[in-house]
């Protein structure tokens, strides 16, 4: 094997070991100084990259090396019962991989270095009334022994019986909530008839306490909610993290010719986003993500298990990891691993390390 190839493989191994050590250190720091960890997480970059001078040969090899899929977002379905106007993973297909094929892909990702899997959609609880995602959650925690398994959901279809059956295998449940005013949620499209999205949010918060699942809230800041003050409600719900995204346009998904949404009317400026963050700066669990931070710092896997490259403002899929393997597919993902670490993508994400008061 050529010397350069050997060196790059060694570099990849070192990076995997460093990531693992950092994970354990994060867990220790989280238990001692939670607020300090959050602040550090916003500014931290990978250890090896930070040690290298800008423009050095070491840094160039870091850039050229194959990224490790430390944290993966698997959008296994595009189907959803909500119609959020800014959605950037819309119902363009109804395809869902067979369960065993999905498990095969997840095992491949674990072997390639995955530590955290996040199941998303669409709405993940639509498929088989939550049984499909439940079986994947159990497989990832019980069989693959992943440190962190999470789900992002609108919460409308989750029932207590799901927690009774699968709650022990789930580390984090993130519920999407963009406003604490029902009228605003309706304007956004986050709702279903006369059912209250906010009442359901509080019910899910209580179930997470009862079944020892860490509770998280995701909010997309857009034209309709950018002026809202959410301090009181977020503090009352007390999530472990409040992820605040800036509304993002993705061609072919929520804008452009082939799009199923017209999200242009939801877009806000960087200045408006910063004003919203300033208004909520005293909330310790706030995790802000501007468009610049978000666009290329997530590893997104679609319903065919293809990595989605968003570097050009639209989703360009790789070949499926089931066909070509993780290493070959991830090279076409456009994943910015340095930004992933810089935005605090690696944190104490296993509920065993959080030591929360359930």
Fold and architecture overview:
By secondary structure, this protein is α/β, with parallel strands linked by helices. It is built from 16 helices and ten strands. Strands 7-6-5-4-3-2-1-8 form an eight-stranded parallel beta sheet. Helix 1 (3-32) runs antiparallel to helix 2 and helix 5 runs parallel beside helix 6 (131-143).
Coarse morphology: globular
Q: What Rg is obtained from the alpha carbons, in whole angstroms?
A: 20 Å
What structural category arises from helix and sheet content? alpha/beta
Biggest sheet record:
8 strands, parallel
Q: What separation lies between the terminal Cα atoms? A: 52 Å
Question: Largest sheet, order of strands side by side?
Answer: 7-6-5-4-3-2-1-8
SSE layout and pairing:
Elements: H1 3-32, H2 34-43, H3 47-51, H4 57-64, E1 71-75, H5 99-111, E2 116-120, H6 131-143, E3 148-153, H7 160-166, E4 172-176, H8 182-188, H9 197-210, E5 214-221, H10 231-237, E6 241-246, H11 270-279, E7 286-289, H12 291-294, E8 299-301, E9 308-309, E10 316-317, H13 321-324, H14 326-330, H15 337-342, H16 351-354
Parallel strand pairs: 1-2, 1-8, 2-3, 3-4, 4-5, 5-6, 6-7
Antiparallel strand pairs: 9-10
Helix pairs in contact: 1-2, 5-6
